[in-house]
């Protein structure tokens, strides 16, 4: 036994099935070309911006002078010390018959 609602549903489904033809069931057209998604475009844009920022930072650091560092300080002048200077040269032995010198002559400083 079938109810009146069930009979109406069967009739509606049969009518709807009669409207479908083989043209409605064919495959859709293939996609054209390659489409880039929003994520891929965003990733490429971020990579390009990051590279440009790194290049700009290197250029700024390399081309601009370092203003925080001043010139190296100059050490104050001091008198020369005799520590670490080489000893005075020893005189060569005098040939026989020449007068001997007991002390070398003092060296005059400029």
Characterise the protein shown here.
Helix content is about 40%, strand content about 0%. It contains two helices and no strands. The protein is rod-shaped, with a radius of gyration of 52 Å. It starts with a helix and ends in a 47-residue tail after the last helix. About 0% of the residues are buried.
The description of the largest β-sheet is: none
Shape annotation:
rod-shaped
Span between termini: 137 Å
Say how many strands there are: 0
Radius of gyration in whole Å, from Cα?
Answer: 52 Å
Helix and strand element order: HH
Report the portion of residues in β strands.
under 5%
Number of contiguous helices? 2
**Poorly predicted regions:** none
What portion of residues is helical? 25-40%
What structural category arises from helix and sheet content? mainly alpha
- Mean of residue pLDDT values: 80
Key features of this structure:
single chain, 110 residues, mainly alpha, 38% helix, rod-shaped
């Amino acid at each position: 036994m079938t109810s009146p609602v069930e009979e109406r549903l069967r009739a509606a489904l049969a009518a709807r099935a009669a409207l479908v033809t083989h043209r409605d069931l064919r495959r859709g057209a293939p996609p054209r070309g390659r489409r880039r998604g929003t994520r891929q475009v965003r990733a490429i844009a971020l990579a390009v911006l990051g590279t440009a920022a790194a290049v700009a930072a290197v250029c700024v650091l390399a081309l601009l002078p370092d203003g925080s560092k001043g010139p190296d300080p100059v050490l104050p002048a001091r008198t020369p010390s005799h520590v670490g200077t080489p000893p005075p040269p020893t005189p060569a032995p005098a040939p026989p018959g020449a007068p001997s010198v007991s002390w070398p002559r003092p060296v005059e400083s400029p």
